[in-house]
Amino acid sequence: MEKNHLYDYTLRLGDTALILGQRLSEWCGFGPILEQDIALTNIALDQIGQARQFLQYAAELQGGDADEDTLAYHRDAHEFRNILLVEQKNGHWGDTLARQFVFDTYNYFFFERLMKSSDERLASIAQKAMKEISYHAQWSAEWIIRLGDGTQESHDKIQQSINDVWMWTGEMLEADELDEMMKDAGVAPDLAEIKSLWIEKVSEILKIATLEMPEGTGHQRGGKKGLHTEELGYILAEMQYLPKSYPDAKW
Predict the structure, then answer these.
(1) 54: pLDDT strictly greater than 90
(2) Domain 3-245: which CATH number of 1.10.340.30, 1.20.1260.10, 3.50.50.60, 1.20.120.530
(3) What is the tens place of the pLDDT at every residue in 159-205?
(4) How far is CA 47 from the centre of its chain?
(5) What angle do CA 136, 158, 80 make, to 5 degrees?
(6) Backbone angles phi, psi at 212, to 5 degrees
(7) Which segments of the chain does DSSP mark as H helices, in order?
(8) How confident is the model at residue 1 (pLDDT cuts 50, 70, 90)?
(9) CA–CA dist 100, 197 (Å, integer)
(10) DSSP-based three-state secondary structure for 90
């Protein structure tokens, strides 16, 4: 395994956490009630905290003057390696919860196994994050059950949200060449195993919520290779405005 492969893989993890954190932060002040507004804002902070650790490690692997800030604020969209799911619009409350649920369920199984990575730094990051990731998975699953088994309106809306987000699920569950290389080196989890666990858990929660699980997994891919939807450009325009406008600023 070459150093640049580990850099690319770590970058994927950092970018996915960063972009999801940025997306969720858009809910700050707009949540349906104060308690859930704060809960979602805290989840956003958790994601950004994880992103910082991954991006700092990636910067060290890259060498030179790079740090977590240069990787976050001074790359263009085609240089980001996050999965497409996390850059999709928040939509209404149910849309955000559906996106969060399918991601959190995956993330729980992923980090649970990343803690056993042969790379001590990645294993350490995963171990530190596992408690908050467990909370994320429980929180979003409880909301899916609450809405699915609630009123007819909430049931219909969250079912449609699940249907709409499903097309983006495949990319996080299916391995490409880099995922396989990292798995063979003992660095990365086996996505085939995670996919099986994910399908079982998602099916279980949706059944409790009286919701139907769409068939298969989504077909939309490209984020891991730097091919993104137009949504990422809007996210980066807002997130990177100050650092790019005033690159020499000292805060």
Answers:
(1) yes
(2) 1.20.1260.10
(3) 999 999 999 999 999 999 999 999 999 999 999 999 999 999 999 99
(4) 8
(5) 55
(6) -95, 140
(7) 3-25, 34-62, 68-73, 93-114, 120-148, 152-165, 170-173, 177-184, 191-208, 230-239, 241-245
(8) low
(9) 17
(10) coil
Do 133 and 111 form a contact (C-beta atoms < 8 A)? yes
- Which pair of tokens denotes residue 225? 């290779």
Residue 226 tokens, joined: 């730097």
Q: 93 pLDDT band (50/70/90 cuts)?
A: very high
Predicted confidence at residue 66, as pLDDT, reads 86
Q: Are 97 and 145 in contact (CB under 8 A)?
A: no
**How many CB atoms within 10 Å of residue 12?**
22
Task: Give the span between the Cα atoms of 190 and 217, in whole angstroms.
Answer: 17
Any idea which residue has 């998602």 for tokens? 202
Q: Which residue has the tokens 């983006």?
A: 168
